[in-house]
Design a protein that fits this description.
- The structure is a homodimer.
- The first copy, chain A, is α/β, with parallel strands linked by helices.
- The first copy, chain A, is about 40% helix and about 15% strand.
- Chain A is built from 5 helices and 5 strands.
- In chain A, strands 2-1-3-4-5 form a 5-stranded mixed β-sheet.
- Chains A and B meet through α2, α3 and α4 of A and α2, α3 and α4 of B.
Chain lengths: ~170, ~170
């Protein structure tokens, strides 16, 4: 593993990271529109967005389809390889164990995320799998990019969901 | 979470577990035939195999396609739901972080595996993610079923791969 590759973004202006995270947020809003947990992701190679994805777990009736996996699969198709060493992912919520593992397996360069996830985050919150040098590959991680916006749409989504359940209960009484 | 559901297999005769693991081994051999790391999996519901899968990562040029994910996706399609609470997976090698996370997300009942994986195993060896009560769901795990056969085809595969590389080097000298 080339440790240096993981610092590529250290000199990248914050405005560029925010630009890509804004595109990921745009994806998250597409998930929100179809009543899915609003998480979105984009994958960037050489400054270009090569894949986009949003959570479609309920729509597809398949829990694999988190935003990261949807974007990963599109990126692999686009470049014709399962190795994504020269790619970075921007995702609005901290990846879960499945998605963190998938990003390690795909040898992604950098993981940038927005909101921290206390319930399943494996890029520093619950576990820090990308930092574990026993794995074949160790992506760099940076969290908290546009954190307020990324967390905001999630908070709003779950608030609305709770209200819907409350309303339903009141109607059935 | 219903803790009791995780002990469904405690009274199951070993011969039944071995029967399903043998079917998973059959899948692993299909991977071997196409020169993929030989790992296979089957998913069982109410005593019936509802999905089978083997590693096709190189063939599909997509690192998502471990045996477990292939089987998981087929099972979800078959039962029309992302929730696999009443299902169990039999896989020839201990699941990696991606696959363990996917099985937790899919709320699978039991994870039975054959060979332990010192390099990436997340069902007890490197991490024990299914035992972490902070996650939404906690599958039961049992490893070491037909361990010798399951590890054997992996050892043989990697031995052959190393020999191929050696032969290639000698030819080019």
């Amino acid at each position: 593993m080339d440790i240096n590759q993981h610092n590529r973004f250290n000199n990248t202006p914050l405005k560029d990271k925010e630009k890509y995270m804004r595109l990921a947020l745009k994806e998250a809003r597409k998930a929100e529109l179809i009543n899915e947990v609003p998480v979105g992701a984009v994958i960037v190679k050489d400054g270009k967005v090569i894949a986009r994805g949003y959570n479609v777990k309920e729509k597809k009736k398949d829990s694999i389809y988190h935003a990261e996996i949807v974007a990963l699969q599109k990126a692999c198709k686009k470049i014709g390889d399962w190795r994504l060493n020269d790619c970075d992912i921007f995702v609005t919520m901290e990846p879960c164990p499945m998605c963190t593992g998938a990003l390690i397996n795909a040898r992604i360069g950098n993981i940038f995320f927005g909101a921290y996830d206390e319930r399943a985050g494996c890029c520093g919150t619950m576990y820090d799998l990308p930092a574990d040098s026993r794995f074949n590959h160790r992506p760099n991680v940076e969290g908290g990019i546009l954190e307020d916006e990324c967390a905001g749409i999630l908070i709003e989504y779950f608030r609305r969901k709770r209200q819907e359940i409350k309303d339903k209960k009141q109607k059935s009484q």
